Amino acid sequence: MKLDNTTAAVVTGGSSGLGEATAxxxxxxxxxxxxxxxxxxxxxxxxxDIGGIFCEVNVTSDESVDAGFAKARAAHGQESVLxxxxxxxxxxxxxxRSKEDGSIKHFPLAAFDWLIQINLVGTFRCVAKSAxxxxxxxxxxxxxxxxxxxxxxxxAEDGQIGQxxxxxxxxxxxxxxxxxxxxxxxxxxxxxxxxxxxxNTPLMQGAPQPVRDALAASVPFPKRLxxxxxxAHLALTMIENSYFNGEDVRLDxxxxxxxx
Length: 260
Description:
The protein is of the alpha/beta class. The chain has a single domain (8-201, 227-250), classed as Rossmann fold (3-Layer(aba) Sandwich). It contains 9 helices and 9 strands. It has helices spanning 17-28, 40-50, 62-76, 109-134, 155-158, 164-184, 202-205, 209-217, 228-240, and strands spanning 8-12, 32-37, 53-56, 81-84, 95-97, 104-106, 146-151, 189-196, 248-251. The strands form 2 sheets. It has a 7-stranded parallel β-sheet with strand order 3-2-1-4-7-8-9, with helices on both faces. α1 links the parallel β1 and β2 (32-37). The longest helix has 26 residues, at 109-134. Belongs to the short-chain dehydrogenases/reductases (SDR) family. Keywords: Oxidoreductase.
């Protein structure tokens, strides 16, 4: 797919981190970018920087996502690119015993469901609604109408202690990549997923330096955290290379996460 000023894109979670880097990389190609996020102040600033548009969107709400797509399409036309970076995480053991008094508790199911709703259902919600819009586009070269990139995590394959919900949510994204690609193959819409390792995102930047150093040292090579533009580079490769379809790709410096 050619990326230029005739292309419209939506990036969820585009106010910071991996999504912001991707929004900026797309805009650098001339693409008209709409950012979906709940961080309005940051999102408005990024949108202003790149000449895009910000849409305050909660990916767990049909109404919010519909309103976001309506606003984006009114400004830029129907998007042919969707990159899903909106997501969050938590760390709670499935069941555990208190070191203080020996009391036993389990993972609160509401917290489990909350994470699934954001990371997995929220991703699918945006993909399904964007794909339906892409079906209205005239096909281009090879009959292509659109390209979608989803974001999972190496935790989908190497989940650590306390990551049952997070790994389930990201494993679900990996698991639905090929079926969605097959669902959309006759309409010329490609779907791929990136599994990032440990990246230097705003969340990680809040960790103590010794923790960050230890995590960087655990990466086989290069021995550092990933940088958001490296994620964006792979996302654009998946979009621009029209033979890239139905794939789940780790971007992790060859790390394999230990139990803790």
